[in-house]
Amino acid sequence: MRNKPPVFNTKWFYPGMGVKRWLVLLLVAVTLGALGLSFVLRELYTTGFRFPAWAYYVTLQFWPRWVRAIILGLLSSSLLFIAMQGLSRSVLSALPSQEQPFSLADMVYEQRRGSAGPRVVAIGGGHGLSTLLSGIKDHTANITAIVNVADDGGSSGRLRREFGVLPPGDIRRCIAALAEEESLMAQLFEYRFGQGEGLRGHTFGNLFITALDDITGSFDQAVKAASRVLAVRGRVLPPTLEDVTLVADLLVPAGAEARTIRGESLIGKGGHPIQRVFLDPPDPPAYRDAVKAIEQADLIILGPGSLFTSILPVLLVTGIRHAICRSHALRVYVCNVATEPGETDQFGVRAHLEALRDHVGIDCVDLALANSNGEPVDNFAPEWQGRTQIVPLDVEDGAFNVVAADIINPANPLRHDPRKLARELMRLLRERRG
């Protein structure tokens, strides 16, 4: 059941709400109507019209005029506030039920504040990007997530092979992250079937996007339709609509046979360090809306997420990479908190940045944001024990522009804290703007 909002919410008078001008217009209209009525009453008085006896008491004529003016002014203001609150409740009664207390003024304020926020483009995939989005949406609604579409494992891989659709998994996760936190639809989108022949392992959101792809006739329209259903704060876009495969060359010992692995889901299982990754076909056309979002951005964020299998597959789309390198936005690479088994074993911050530079050029980022909380972690999940470590902050010679901050999640030391990360990124953007 929705809790009642307060009797009066001062947010109605905050700058940028777009409400005060209409309140003034309403008051002018009421005042003009009152003046017109006063002319009529005056005319009746001067022509000798006899009012009934009760009119003497209703119009408070037994008090001085200045007292009547104060009383009527207070009564008018009180009725105006009550009317605004009643209107707010009437409008909200038509909206889906919410657990937390809020008012129409709160909704308008949040929408106005978000729409006036900086234009942010976030690039990557997997859990890292969805973590970032869940925190950054509290600062702006002008968010565009450009999400990796090279996934070929799990539910996404099955749908890709059976229906020929682009992998929806990472996109689904980002749509859910940008939805309202308490939204039942967002929870439904992330629901994974645990049984059923053919359904086991699939998420409802993946199936939903696949169905929309068939209904709308294109993957990008399916993603837009799914975003509307969840009323996401921002946009989720693919970097390309081409069916691409991620390929990796592994770094094998001298004299050993060269080894190449095809498929994102297999790259981390190759048993050797990754030398480079590339796309097949090698130069897929960039999705125009994604390029346009980059060109208009104030802040471009690469990561967090798997460097070789989430971030680089997006940057390897030539049109996306060139748009980022040309951009005048603040371009930040968010380094992972922990190493990833099979991909970035023994990597420090420097190794992450060198791999990024080797693939796309260091000119594509202005600075890197790394975790400064290097305290030993002893509460790894059993399956991660001995397989990962906190990424060491090993850049001290000025070769790279690195900003260090405590952005780790105390409850899960392998991950970023979404709110800490978002606050630090917004701080960096404010400093850039001077």
Considering the chains and any ligands shown, give keywords for the structure.
434 residues; Rossmann fold; 7-stranded parallel beta sheet; 3-stranded antiparallel beta sheet; 16 helices; 13% strand
How would you describe this structure to a colleague?
With 434 residues, the chain is an alpha/beta fold. The chain folds into two domains: 10-109, no CATH class; 117-149 and 238-433, Rossmann fold (3-Layer(aba) Sandwich). It has helices spanning 20-46, 54-58, 65-92, 104-115, 126-136, 154-163, 169-178, 184-189, 204-216, 219-230, 264-267, 288-295, 307-315, 318-326, 349-360, 418-433; strands at 120-124, 143-147, 235-237, 245-250, 259-262, 274-280, 299-302, 330-334, 367-371, 402-405, 408-409, 412-416. It has a seven-stranded parallel sheet with strand order 3-2-1-7-8-9-10, sandwiched between helices. Strand 4 and strand 5 form a beta hairpin. The longest helix has 28 residues, at 65-92. The protein is elongated. The protein starts with 19 loop residues before the first helix and ends with a helix. The relative contact order is 0.10. The model has no long low-confidence stretch (mean pLDDT 86).
